[in-house]
Amino acid sequence: MNSAFVAQYAGQVGTLTLEHLWLTGAALLFATAIAVPCGIGLTRFPRWARPVIAVANVLQTIPSLAMFGFLLPVPWLGERAARIAIVALTAYALLPILRNTYAGIRAIDPTLVEVAQALGLTDAQRLFKVELPLAASFIFAGLRTATVTCIGIATIAAAVGAGGLGELIFRGVASVDNRLVLAGAIPAALLALAADAALGLLERVFKVPDAKAYGA
Amino acid sequence: MKAAVEFRNLCFAAPQGRLLLQDISLALEEGSTTAILGRSGSGKSTLLRTVNGMVKPASGAVLLHGKSIDGADLVTLRRSIGYVVQETGLFPHFTVERNVGLVLEAMRQPRAERIHRSHALLSDVGLDPAGFAQRFPHQLSGGQRQRVGVARALAADPRILLMDEPFGALDPLTRAEMQDMLRNLLRSMKKTVILVTHDLDEALYLADRIALLEEGKLIAVLTPKQFLTSRQPEIEAYVRAFHRGGREEDSQATSAGGMQEMSR
Once rounded to an integer, what is the mean pLDDT over residues B45-71? Predict the structure, then answer.
């Protein structure tokens, strides 16, 4: 890649990176807002866990290009490509967050949950003081998987005109210019790696030492 | 005088239909320590858990200071009852200080008061607050964790203290230390204590009365002295099992020790 190329596309890469971040960030925000409460709800009604997680699983298996295509004719959504992209990415991010929230809370030592009740914590106190902090590391792990997946899939959103780094990749493919493909792919990969590292750090920070491992 | 805790014709059935508690009636005096003794699966923990509403009886009633707990607000009820379990149930993400003060935190007491109270309680159970308040449960030994568990149960100054095999997981030496600590503590505080245990020695050492449960039925309620001399077959079997093997001499000495304590 020569310097003229870099000079020509640097600004565009910057703008598209921001666009990419906005698409994935918004989708992750929506997905977290839906999946964490749902995951908590499922721990209260475990009978629903299998069917609900199955639906999220099915969403995950829809090929991304097809998903963007399906959403195109939907009224309101279809008017703006970014809307389609955010809805589709949200759907992909749901499963890992939902599954990890549910599994994280279910994995808490039942003695601790029982003690929280027996000490007279209200349901909300039990959730916010005991269950969520103890499941936090799991939930961040889910968020991490969802983030990396979304950053990757967001490149395909360019196919419906939603922008993001995929735009350079698609343009590069169309014009058989590998430099353009790389100008989109490398920043996307770096974004994914950075998000992975940052969320991995959060996951470790919230990891709770296990008292039982040290012997009673 | 009203009993601090009274079980009235209490019955409880497991979901599979097996009766875990059968028509239990028992009244516990204010300030007394009652050991509920029995083998695993005899229903002793279930009986204990009816007191703080963790288990809802199928029929019969639990009365605390003369009032039935049926229909009472469970959160308020539980905050007024101390609870200690075998694995301590300390929250691994909280410091010792916060674990002890958690009930007060739930009751929205000011932070300074909570800290003051938890430090005082840590001293009471033999842990120096300066060295222990900021530690996490995984940085404590089993005995120290259990001390924190006891301190936490006492945080809201409850009149009733429920202990479910509190020292069951500890080695014999640590267990003996804990029993001494608890005994001294209970002497200085007037609490009504229900102690679930399968350890006759512990029951003899700590309790004013021993209630023997077998297959969900209350077999007898006796003082430790009466328990050791009873001719009732179930009790004799229990005492015999306790005295068995090479421990015979030791156990007799312990039992005699227990009897001496009683006659004091």
Answer: 92
| B74: closest chain A residue by CA | A120
Distance from CA of A126 to the nearest CA of B (A): 9
Q: Is there a contact between B54 and A111 if contact means CB atoms under 8 Å apart?
A: no
Q: What is the pLDDT of residues B65-121, one digit of tens each?
A: 999 999 899 999 999 999 999 877 899 999 999 999 999 999 999 999 999 999 999
Domains of chain B, start order: 5-80+158-263 (3.40.50.300)
Q: How much is the pLDDT for B245?
A: 56
Q: Give me the total of CB pairs closer than 8 Å, taking one residue from chain A and one from chain B.
A: 74
Give residue limits of the domains in chain A. 11-207
CB contact under 8 A, B106 and A121: yes
Which pLDDT tens digit goes with each residue over B228-259?
A: 988 898 888 888 887 775 444 444 444 444 44
Which of A111, A112, A119, A122 to mutate against chain B (most B CBs within 10 Å)? A119
CB distance B89–A111 less than 8 Å?
yes
Identify the CATH number of the domain defined by range A11-207.
1.10.3720.10
> Which of A134, A215, A216 is nearest residue B93 as measured by Cβ atoms?
A134
Q: How distant, in Å, are the alpha carbons of A36, A145, A155, A201, B55 from that of A197?
A: 22, 11, 20, 6, 46
Per the CB < 8 Å rule, is B76 touching A120? yes
Mark yes or no for CB contact A121/B170 under 8 Å. Answer: no
Q: Which residues of B touch A113 (CB under 8 A)?
A: none
Cβ pair B103, A129 in contact under 8 A = no
End-to-end CA distance of chain B: 25
Residues of A in contact with B76 (CB under 8 A): 120
**B21-31 confidence digits (pLDDT tens):** 999 999 999 99
For the question of an ipTM over 0.90, the answer is no
